[in-house]
Amino acid sequence: MQLARVLGRVVATTKAAGLEGRALLVIQPLDEALAPAGKSIVAADAIGSGPGEIVFFVGGREASMAMPGERFVPVDAAIVGHVEQVAVGGRRVEPEA
Question: How far apart are the first and last CA of the chain?
Fold first, then answer.
């Protein structure tokens, strides 16, 4: 699992089976200090996330299995949790606004 910040939404009029009604979000992967780490990616949202939120996501086969109600959905990344707080070495890391 990796941390990311939700940047925005992707609008697609046609989606693969299993993605109907699911949001596709642009996310920015983050490091342990909540600083941007690498390029932004598109992830399927399995939990109902919105812009600005800190989330965690999975990739690969785990992403395809994370979508509720489906056995296999063709995605490379899926958002699977909201982050309430991050602590590294016993110190709380505050997200940038």
Answer: 23
CA dist 83 and 73 (Å) reads 24
Name all domains of the chain by residue range, CATH numbers in brackets: 2-93 (2.40.50.220)
**CA distances (Å), origin 58, targets 1, 14, 38, 77, 92:** 5, 23, 15, 6, 23
pLDDT tens readout for residues 17-70: 888 888 999 999 999 889 999 999 999 998 999 999 999 999 988 888 887 766
> Residue 97: pLDDT above 60?
no
Instruction: Supply 49's token pair.
Output: 């996330």
Is the entire prediction scored with pTM above 0.85?
A: yes
User: In the numeric block, which tokens belong to residue 86?
Assistant: 């991050």
For residue 95, which phi and psi values (nearest 5 degrees)?
-70, 145
